[in-house]
Protein: Gamma-glutamyl phosphate reductase
Organism: Paracraurococcus ruber
Amino acid sequence: MNAIAEAVLRPSSSDVARQFDAAARAARAAAAALRDRTAEILAANEADVAGAPGLSAAYRDRLTLTPARIDAMARGLEEVAELPDPVGRTLAEWTRPNGLRIRRVAQPIGVIGMIFESRPNVTADAAALCLKSGNAVILRGGSESLRSAGAIHACLAEGLRAAGLPDAAVQVAPTADRAFVGAMLRAAGLVDLIIPRGGKGLVTRVLEEARVPVLAHAEGLCHTYIHAAADPAMARSILANAKMRRTGICGATETLLVDEAIAPSLLPLLVADLRALGCDFRADARARAICPDLPAAAEQDFATEWLDAVLSVAVVDGVGAALEHIRRHGSEHTEAIVTEDAAAAQEFLDGLASAVGMWNASTQFCDGGEFGFGAEIGIATGRMHARGPVGLEQLCTYRYQVFGTGQVRP
Amino acid sequence: MNAIAEAVLRPSSSDVARQFDAAARAARAAAAALRDRTAEILAANEADVAGAPGLSAAYRDRLTLTPARIDAMARGLEEVAELPDPVGRTLAEWTRPNGLRIRRVAQPIGVIGMIFESRPNVTADAAALCLKSGNAVILRGGSESLRSAGAIHACLAEGLRAAGLPDAAVQVAPTADRAFVGAMLRAAGLVDLIIPRGGKGLVTRVLEEARVPVLAHAEGLCHTYIHAAADPAMARSILANAKMRRTGICGATETLLVDEAIAPSLLPLLVADLRALGCDFRADARARAICPDLPAAAEQDFATEWLDAVLSVAVVDGVGAALEHIRRHGSEHTEAIVTEDAAAAQEFLDGLASAVGMWNASTQFCDGGEFGFGAEIGIATGRMHARGPVGLEQLCTYRYQVFGTGQVRP
């Protein structure tokens, strides 16, 4: 707690929110600094990569920066700078019979604690979104990317100074000590929101320990349901994209549900498509009755977020059975139905508890950029506050402004 | 956890949400049952009151039911039955350049755990709001009102049965054991939201122990600021109402801030008005320079939620100083400014971090009924999700429905 109390100058909403021009200027200046200091950042990143020899290839890839990745970070900052300011928007307004006018207005949440794993670029992306939404942020990246994060933060700090904003608006954790994460999670009254970005282990730990609200998803166990009335060509195109476009992201489909009415004709084609893309399968008995060469699924496979080129497959009897399967095994992240039957599609969408339901589109569209939010800081599956892609707008809470003419309450 | 797991049939959003007619019928039938069983409820309540002889007069008053209070409960149920259904509302809708149509739709939060102290009528009010918003609720009242809550719950259960809804939609805690509260607070995955209603001790305990999101306010340390350009008659009327209409509610003003420019002429009148209504004072040195007979305030008095006929008084130099006082001592609940100067009013409203800011109106308007929400289940001062009065609409979260024509993500 003391480390946090000392580290954080807790800005009031008005301190930062009134300075949106400054936030945009800071983001642009930070982008310029990233480009100017590319060599310096690459050197810091090389030291990080060299200092962590035991990493898996995938982890090493996420950790490694290149000139192109640094330029992409800079462009990200510039794009966020151009987005409309979310704070101060009127979300709703109405007048009471006694003449009181009530307005619901967006305001920043306050201080956001960002806890993430290997990707050093999160430092810049998260800082830009928090700054533009009037929030202050404390960034705590993985210990293996400390030098990279430090070099990127130096550019952000340069941007803040260029725009006359306080250094406290974007801070990196002063220590790699794991106890600092624990302190952040318990810093109620100093930190208003925790956003963890990383594997299920990190997110689960954060959800269990945090005394502060958390926006997160622990898993993206997404389903694509091919309904009896699906257009076969569309189904093949959407499934291939939903599963194989990128297998490691949370919006990737992990389980295919095929309606029994269409499975005999369509499932062999879907399997052939995906196999050609390098996908493996875990299929239930009814799917194996149609495609006998599919490996058999264990019950646990339907509760597994593969994050890899593996697809669980089950044959189901109609929308109700698809919903029941999703309710039993899903993670309330994103599910899609492919069908030409509008009534079936709406029944599916209304029956889901998930944050996002898709009709005739790939589950991989669950993304702040694809939703038109400009950028995202994460994806939330909780039932409180923001759900789905979390962008600038979702980084704001609201307050009421009430306009009277002397009303007193009877 | 096991007690919760056994007690709760966790309904999916669609189970309950699709049955709004049923929810309204259940509320009406429960209201009829409350009226039919008035004698039975009064007898149970008498036993509760007799069983708790050491209570303060105020606590005993909150615990005691009368035929009029039971009828008010029944009317409350009937009023909630008539409110528009909040679930399924389209909160926002837009189309992406690739043709994807995205709709943000209101849905129930899930299972709500309601923890409250003496007032047995909360049993009926909370049940009606949760039912109508498609949520299930577990009610855990104070141990001293168990018999009353049981008798009221019997009427609610009768309403559920009459409408064909599952008993699990409205449950009372099966035990007065305090450990049950602890289990509710840790029942992540079974309980989606905790709403505590009671004193600061209860709410603070809940905020500290809960592993589940909490909607709450620990204190309502509300301020009324009389600006230099206030209309004196309006200021007197608003302050008297804001402080003395009811002193024990969270929206009651606890601190008066008077601008130095108007204090010499107005403060003596404000003091005389309130004194005539039985109010006592704790004043800073600048206020006592104008009204020397006011008792001196200690610093701690400005951080005290009196919930009584006591008013802290300070003289401040302009809007900035008023905001600074509120930031240092307030609880981000409700603050009011009285002024004829629109620019000063907007500066005050924009500078607040509080959930509700009022211009030329009494702080006691911070109430779901007064906001036009039909009813309220509580008032929230957190920065996440709902803030201010929490009614039907705020008992919903949202999800996205995305309508495609076969889009796949590039």
